Amino acid sequence: MRGLNIILPILASIPNVFCLSKSRSVNDVPIVDLGYAQYQGVFDVNTNTTSYFGVRYAAPPVGELRWQAPQAPANVTGVQQADTEPSPCFSSGEIAPPDTVSTSHGKRQTPAESEDCLFLNVYFPGDSIPGTLLPTVVWIHGGAYNFGSTSMFTGSDLIRESEDGVVAVIIQYRLGFFGFLAGNEVKENGVLNAGLLDQNFALRWVNQHISKFGGDPTKVTIWGESAGAGSVLQHVIAEDGQTSPQLFRGAITSSTYLPSQYLFNDTIPQSLYDQVVEQTNCTSASDTLTCLRGVDASVLQAANTKINTAGLFGTFASVPVVDGTFIRQRATEALRQGKVNGEVLLAVTNADEGSLLVNQSDPLNATFYAPQLFPKLSSNETSAIEAAYANLGSLITQDSLIMGESIFVCPTHFLLNAFQNRSFKGEFALPPAVHGLDIDYYFPTGKALSFNNTAFLNAFSQSFLSFVISLDPNVKVDPANITPQWSLYSDGNTEMKFNKTADNEPNVTAITTDDNLLERCR
C-alpha cells in the first residue's frame, strides 16, 4: 500500500511514553501465579495502577507452530518480572522506532519485532489485587491486521476513565502473513486466520486467569479500533454466534474495519499465498507450506512487507478469510442472520473515515475506484455505486466516502442491526474527525490533544467505560458527565454525536442517522 509511512502512525496511534519512575519497591507488588508461570508487575503511584507487562499467554508460534493454532505456554520456574513491554509482532512496513519505556528499573527500549510475540498486558487499580472482582475490558489494537502492539496504548488511561472500576487487558496477535496467510495449503496443513485464533486464545486466557488479577471473567467486554474493531466483529460472528463458553458479554467497536472477506481458497487469497511462496524461494518445494515454515523469519518478513505495501493506496492484502470452522460465513451474511456472540453492542464511527485512506493527489472516478477497492464487483454493482456517489462532491470526496462508508460505516450499521434492540451508536465528529483520531481520546496520556477539554474528554471516554461496567452508557461512572440520555440505536436510528461548538465548548447531542447514508448501505 503506497503512502504507508503517512498512514501508519495515525491509524495505530502515536506510541506512548510510560512514566513509572515513582513505582513502589518491586518486592511489594503482588505475585500472580498462573500455574505455568508466576508474574510480578509494577505499581505507579502517579496513576495508582498496577501493571503486568509482557505476560505470555501462548507458546512462541515459531518453527512447526508457524501457521498452527496457538498452544499453551510451557512451564517456567521462578518469578518473572513483568516490568517491560513485550516484543511486538512482525508488522508490514516501517513504523516509528520503538518507544522508550521508563520504569523504576531504568529506561529500556521496547524490544524489536519478533515472531515470539504472543503476550498481553494486564492493569488493575491500586497497589493490591482488587478484593471484589471488577468488570474487565480487553483492548484489541488496530492497524489493518498488519501492524500495532501493546506499547502503543496506556492501560492506566482506561482504569482512570472508569474511576478505578475495571481491570484492563491489552493483547498482541500475529499480524500480516504471519497471522493471516490463506490458501488451500494452509487449510490442509495448518490453520487459517491464525491471528484471530490468537485473539480467541487470549480471550480464553482471560476467562481462565483474569480473576487472579481481580477481574470478573463473567463481565468481559471486548473493544477495538479499526482492525481491532474488525476483530471484535469477527469474534461476534465466530462459530455462527455459538462460541462456548461465551467469552464476552459486551462488544465495543470503534470504526469497524471490514474489507472484502473472501473464502480461504478464492483466487485472490490463493494468489497471495503463491506470491509469498515465490518471494521466499519455495516454488520448487514439493510441500510449499513446510518450506515456508523453514524459511528464516527475516525472509518471510521481507515478503510480508513487500506484498502488503504494493496494493491500492489505503488497502492491505493480509486480512481475515472465511475459513469454514471459526469464521463459517461472510460477516455480512452472519450479521444479516443475527448469528452473534455477546449481549450488547456499543459502536462508534468517525465523521470522516475515508479521506486518510484515499490518495488525495490521484482521485479516480467511482467507475474506476470501486472495482480496485472491491475486485469482485460486477459491472451492475459498479454502476450502482457510481450513481449513488456521483452527486456527492469532487472525485476526492466521492472516493473518500466510498472508502469510508463501504469499509467502516456500513459494516458498523450491519453490526448494529444484528444486535436488534441491544445496541448503541455514537459518532466522533471532533474536527477533523479522521480515521484513528478518536484513539487519542481513549488513550490521552502523552498526546497533544487538539481539544483538551476535560468535560469533553470525560463525556466521550467515560461513556465507553460506563458501558464496560454496566452494558449501558447511561449508568455513568461520574454523575457530572455531560453526555445526555443515550437511546438505543433501534429507537429511531438514534446516535450520540461528540463534537465541539464554534466557541470551543463541548457539544454532545443526540442525532438521527442520515437516511441517505442508510440507503447507500443497503
TrEMBL record:
What organism does the UniProt record list as the source? Answer: Moniliophthora roreri (strain MCA 2997) (Cocoa frosty pod rot fungus)
Q: Which residues form the signal peptide?
A: 1-19
Similarity-based family: Belongs to the type-B carboxylesterase/lipase family.
Annotated segments matching region Disordered: 79-109
Q: Using the record's annotation, list all stretches that form the Carboxylesterase type B domain.
A: 41-500
Alphabetized Pfam families for the sequence: COesterase (PF00135)
PANTHER family to which the protein is assigned, alphabetical: CARBOXYLESTERASE (PTHR11559)
Picking any one GO molecular function of the record gives: hydrolase activity
Q: What class of enzyme is it?
A: hydrolase
Q: Which InterPro entries has this protein been placed in? A: AB_hydrolase_fold (IPR029058), CarbesteraseB (IPR002018), Carboxylesterase_B_AS (IPR019826), Carboxylesterase_B_CS (IPR019819), Type-B_Carboxylest/Lipase (IPR050309)
Q: What is this protein called?
A: Carboxylic ester hydrolase
Q: What is its EC number?
A: 3.1.1.-
| This protein's UniProt keywords | Hydrolase, Signal
Which Gene3D superfamilies does the UniProt record give?
alpha/beta hydrolase
Domain of life (superkingdom): Eukaryota
